[in-house]
Amino acid sequence: MNDTRQRIALLSKALDLLTDRPIKVMEVCGTHTVSIFRQGLRSLLPPSLKLVSGPGCPVCVTDQGEIDAAVSLAGINGVTVATYGDMLRVPGSGSSLMNERARGRDVRIVTSADQALEIARNEKTRLIVFVAVGFETTAPSTASVILDAHRDRISNFTVLDLHKAVPPALEALASDADIDLDALLLPGHVSVILGLSPYGFLPERYGIACAVAGFEAEEIMLGLVEVARQIKEGRPRVASLYGQAVRAEGNPFARSLVDRVFEPGDSSWRGLGEIPLSGYALREEYSSMDALKRLDISIRRTPPPDGCSCGEVLRGVMTPRECPLFGNLCNPSHPVGPCMVSGEGSCAAHFRFSAGGDDPWKR
Amino acid sequence: METLSIGHGAGGRLTEELVSLILGRFPGNPVADREDCAVLPGGIAVTIDGYTVTPLAFEGGDIGSLCICGSANDLSVRGAKPLYIALGVIVEEGFPFEDLARFMTSAGEVCRALGIELVTGDTKVVPRGQADGLFLTTCAIGKTGAHPGLGTRNISPGDVILLTSPPGMHGATIAASRYGLKVNGLSSDCAALWPMLETLLPLEGLKCMRDCTRGGLGTVLCEWAESAKVGIEIDETLIPWDEASISVCDLLGLDPLHMAGEGCAAVVVSPEEAEAALELAKNHPLGKRASIIGSVTEEHPGYVGIHTASGGTRLVDKPVGEELPRIC
Ligand code: SF4
């Protein structure tokens, strides 16, 4: 047996000893979800520990109406839509960016906001719409290219700004009695930017145990041991296991970039609905780069597909397997909801990697 | 109207749908045998494959070497020695002569090394914009020898799975160049497998071989488990990973088990001859990192499980469509 396996086996034993009552832990971030599944960690958890996936997959929480807006933008002559790869397959109410690309619309995959700006610099005759999604981790890079584009007067660069903020969504979840969370596993990289203080209300007001953890198997197991211990001792707090990278005050430089370009605004989350001040709205100064204003497209509310339970899954009140569409009508080749589309979606992870703790061999 | 998407060509579940749509319209029952190549009466093995790759030249190879290695490998994994090749060239108006010559030189070099003869071909020049530079199609013809019956149907519980080299190197190399990543030591594994696989053929316990191209090692194993109705268990720590490819996959959020290789074969062999097969593979430069990565089980028919480096267990699935890089 190798060292990692041995250390993780020990952590698994510790976890078993610490959980003497059923506890419900939410891993907030999609990167955690994938790592947990890919490493098969669910097969190492005690049965009394229930792990649910939260709203931290940026693709999954992008609202259907927001996708529709991106699709409409892609349909305008002369427009090039640039976005992150896993946005392509997310279904809107009628189409997806992938479909639009197959129909000959100019939709391109970029791996950074910089690349989108590069396209604008190189192809002056196209109007570039960068579909900016993600949380605290990607907002600073979007902010930085907006500042660059502004400075260099790149007039053919615009942004469909769909950025969202994690803490307000956590507040919505924590205050929802249906969900009844004991603990949260918080993403290390978001905390590097935000610091720890924005999470303080979780243990203080809602008694929720919190651990900020990295994405390696061992770090995740350590995070789970930490929250289990907090629960057992009856002393919830926000503990960082992400080491030096997380400072209490976060990364002031990244935050100031974001502050210069964005201000808090309301945002619609798939499954969670409209959450006040949970978005990053473009400041007036940069409104010429707002793709919606520039091309006169609005984000409209549309009902979710029939039978789709993504909302319940994203709030952790339903497991993917409990959705009546799971596996039959909704599967990775024919996804109904975004949770089955994104590589980080919990339905896709359940489908691809296992049934969960009890029997990893069942789909 | 439903239209084809790029995912239909990625070798996973969507590709299966596309293939069924085509095969279902032909007489006979071409669906029954989905091996890498067809073996006709008299032991004649035939395969055909189209090659499109962006970029046309990459670290470790180019579309020329790829189009010969790829088709030759499809024959080799069924124990057939590649002998002849037919080549179709579709090239776009405006394509530089010099580039075409360069790619044909590398194709010719692979043929020379393997003793493959080019016997017929076709060229088409299409107007600008109708082809992405250069499309090549090769049909390879060969002859089976010592082991004419290699194939999925031989796989049975207890058998051992051997992997001849790190998985996913070609796919990772292409993904890195497409998304503008520079990673030291990254290179495609594009190579003709015949010289190595030929040495395994005398083994009586040799059951089945497959090159892990489109859809990667994960797809090969899933297809085996499904069609042979067996379970397969592999151990992540036994897979001979390529560091550079892994870092590309980590950065882009891609699954290395779904990344294509172009010189990497998975081999099923009886437990009695597993060590012998390993040694034979290791004796050849292409197989110096060969490793036994798992085994075939009676339990969990149709499923592939991986015991992870953390000691957990999870399923391995086929990719669904084009593997797309993720957000953060
Ligand atoms: S199975 Fe499909 S429809 Fe059901 S919650 Fe998951 S993604 Fe939504």
Briefly characterize the structure.
The complex is a heterodimer of chains A (363) and B (328). With 363 residues, chain A is of the alpha/beta class.
Shape of chain B: globular
The CATH class of the largest domain in chain A: Alpha Beta
Strand order of the largest sheet of chain B: 9-11-8-12-10-13-14
Count of helical regions of chain A: 16
Q: Please report which band the strand proportion of chain A falls in: under 5%, 5-15%, 15-25%, 25-35%, 35-45% or over 45%.
A: 15-25%
Helix content of chain A: 25-40%
Q: Which strands sit side by side, in order, in the main sheet of chain A?
A: 2-1-7-8-9
Structural class of chain B: alpha+beta
Per CATH, what is the topology of the largest domain in chain A? Rossmann fold
Estimate percent helicity of chain B.
Answer: 25-40%
The helix-and-strand class of chain A reads alpha/beta
- Taking all Cα atoms into account, the compactness measure Rg of chain A is 21 Å
Q: Mind telling me the C-alpha Rg of chain B?
A: 19 Å
- Bound compounds, please? iron/sulfur cluster
Number of separate domains of chain B: 2
Termini distance of chain B?
Answer: 34 Å
CATH architecture term of the largest domain in chain B: Alpha-Beta Complex
Tally of helical runs of chain B? 8
Strand content of chain B: 25-35%
